[in-house]
Amino acid sequence: MSSSFGQIFRVTTFGESHGAGVGVVIDGIPGNMRLSLDIVQEWLDRRRPGQSELTTSRDESDRVECLSGTENGRTLGGPLMLFVRNTNIKPSDYKDVQTVFRPGHADYTMLEKYGVTASSGGGRSSARETIGRVAAGAVAWQLIREFHKDFDIVGWVHSVKDLSIDKATEQTLESTVTRKIVDQSAVRCPDAATSQKMVAIITQAKGAGDSVGGIIRCVIRGVPTGLGEPVFDKLEADLAKAVMSLPATKGFEIGSGFAGTKMSGSAHNDALIKRGEKIATRTNHSGGVVGGLSNGELITFNVAFKPVSTIFIAQDTVDRSGREVTFKPDGGRHDPCVLPRAVPMVESMAALVIADHVLRHRALAPFEP
Predict the structure, then answer these.
(1) Whose CA is closest to 123, among 15, 7, 279, 277?
(2) What mean pLDDT, rounded, does the chain reach?
(3) CA angle 169, 173, 175 (to 5 degrees)
(4) For the chain: N or C, fewer Cβ within 10 A?
(5) What is the mean pLDDT of residues 265-285?
């Protein structure tokens, strides 16, 4: 099972949803870097369950423990190990999982692949595994800021089901919105009117025992020109792989995305201009990446998330003997919509990619005689 990501800034997550705990080991952090575990905790608090009526009721504080790699607020250059204990597990909620394949889950595919599955919860397929990613993302964000002080990443919920923020509003958000503003909304949508309607859609689905999906939009600011390693590690390729490794993801597009297929080349090409002392582009259909390399503009991308697989409605499936049965969970604590808690997950995966490419870029800087 592959649980590692990155080349120089390399993370390995570990743990299961109903095991002793989950966490991450991070290699490649330069020594003597300032590191705030309070910032790591802030990022984890944005991901943790039980934030509102729109999320799972699983009661976990998700307090981070640092087991190695730092001392007196500075990194030591060795592996950084961050750990979060599971304190509110309920194996009894998953007694049926031992005999039935749940629709939309990885029960069947994991059993076929490994010959065994976790007896409760989703094991490594659970979104609880993303705790390690978010903790590492917070570290990556701090590392990048050491080199590029204007760097930041902000994600928000662009759409829930068929309701989305209008294009004009979103273009303004790309340059101005902050995580603090995003977090003022229970659904993490920074447009107040749209946020209220999204809450209503999620609440209705929850009341019906169903779930809904949607799209998260993310913007990366303050990225220098030249990040990315063509041809196989193009920046957008690594971003796509990173976010598509998150649970429940089903689509990725950067810049104009699929809408760009409806444009002509003359309309889609971003004209180069002089902005102050720098070369810039008049438009940003490329989403900040050209030829697999960052061009200094805002990097913008969307990630599609499917409706949460666990619903409280009877569904057709088969049990482990191959017999057709009807399945409906007797219990369990699940999000009716993953989007509000997935925002920091998307931001974190983007931070891991940028941190890795910042270190790779510095290692391969052009020779200056």
Answers:
(1) 15
(2) 93
(3) 130
(4) C
(5) 97
